[in-house]
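User: Can you model how 6-O-phosphono-beta-D-glucopyranose sits in this protein?
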Amino acid sequence: MATTRPDDCVLVIFGGTGDLARRKLYPALYNLAVDGFLPASFQVIAVGRRDFARGGFRREILLPSLQTFSRRAGDLARKFEAFAAHLHYFRTDIYDPQGYTRLAGLLEQLEQKAGCQNGDPDICWGDDNQPGINGGQGRGRNNYRGVGSNLAGDPGRNRGEGACRGNRIFYLAVAPEHFGAVVENLHQAGLVPARGWQRVVIEKPFGHDLPSAAALNRQLRAVFSEEEIYRIDHYLGKEMIQNLMVMRFANIFFEPVWNNKYIDHVQITSTETVGVVDRGDYYDRAGALRDMVQNHLLQLVTLVAMEPPANLSTEAIRDEKVKVLRSLQPLDAAAVSKNVIRGQYGAGAIEGQAVLPYRREKEVAPDSLTETFVALKIFIDNFRWAGVPFYLRTGKRLPDKVTEIILQFKSLPDILYFKEYGELQPNVLVIRVQPLEGVYVQLNAKRPGNDNYIVPIRLDFCQNCEVGVNSPEAYERLLYDVMRGDATLFTRWDEVEAAWRFIDPITAAWAAQEPPQFPNYAAGRWGPPAAQELLLRDGRHWWQEEEWLPEPG
Ligand code: BG6
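Assistant: Here's the modeled complex, given as structure tokens:
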């Protein structure tokens, strides 16, 4: 994990007027700017097809995006202009080769401007001595000048001269079917190789199955090396997910019990109250298994289950993660029938409001067999985890938006307190990822008083419950890492490959089964009854927040 500051660079966003750019990328860049985390010399080119009148991009796209989605929107009146001065809108069709030639011209032009060393206020926005975006408020953090930062082991860095040092990031915020054309055009028009370094950032879905993912990867690899490809899994940018490794490996009392001798099972839940919003077309082709499990949930499994890495380098960490994916016990058709539950929501209510069934959502087939819920029981066949079930579940239109990792410990032998006071609660470690961020442990303790009544208590740490704590958005950390060349929180190709190898047999088994009886859960319920039975038949149950601390009877 790098601790360096980001290099000066130009960021080119394809899909610059799209949903991702508006909801996530511009707000993240603005937040980074306000907090003083952008390189001293930095420019953004938003590429889109829309034609705007002069200033239209700022007015119609950029400003509303920051007003609606930035956690720093309060500062906009003072800071918007300084921020916007670094964003340029460039209109072209991503299939038009001429457009790339013109884009190359704009990049050259921006890169040839004088650098921050010469105090060009147009380009120098991260400098504490300039009246830039952070107006000196980031002093101490933001004294980076973009010179002489040369990370070991990356020979291509900082070769360029002038502002932005000829370093280029291409962010493909477009559908994956366009990736091939964009990278090919970048290459043909000479936008890559850059004078400095070049990096490409891509979003999921990374393929639909292993063959399509491999084809996509070949297209990217024709132009970029593996080290230059940053595959985003935004869950890895979430605060508590980054914290997971630190907690595991920086506290002595976790590691000794973090194995099949002490852990009964693991639950990973990531649920949402929303439906498919305006992504019905994509979602109906993907479904919950591909949309959430293949990437986010399996990534969480790797972080919970991985061995301590040899060191904190990107590759050492990724090596351990990929070993977990390769150790997943494959699911054959019989195991899929038994251990993978799928569901689709029907009509129901969320927070008291009636909502439509999935099949009546926009751009969804009226007889769709796509799953909007999935629950799985999986095993990791290695020495640490053999025999410990990992239960995963995710779904849309469930009662709560919550992501949590729960480790339930084995029960103590049936002696002492058990004998005297009946059933005790198991010890549970809960890592709350969102919306609350924190950790808590459930213990058994004596209720104050003259009798020896045992009750479960919580040691609870919540890092975003206090007023004023405003954790960075996942995309802030991820963009920051791309700029400083740290790929630890991005997925390497062999991880993607191993994840698809695990998922493909599930979709194949489903295709061979009788079509499911959908819808099978009402919006606003915790998925189909079979998802509860998956654990009940093992003598376990899904932990729900409201059940954690039963009132003493
Ligand atoms: C995306 C999925 O990757 O993650 C969406 O495509 C889902 O369907 C989203 O809604 C959930 O992300 P978060 O950060 O809101 O939990």
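A couple of observations from the model: Confidence is low (pLDDT under 50) at residues 114-161, 548-553. The longest helix spans residues 280-305.
User: Helpful, thanks.
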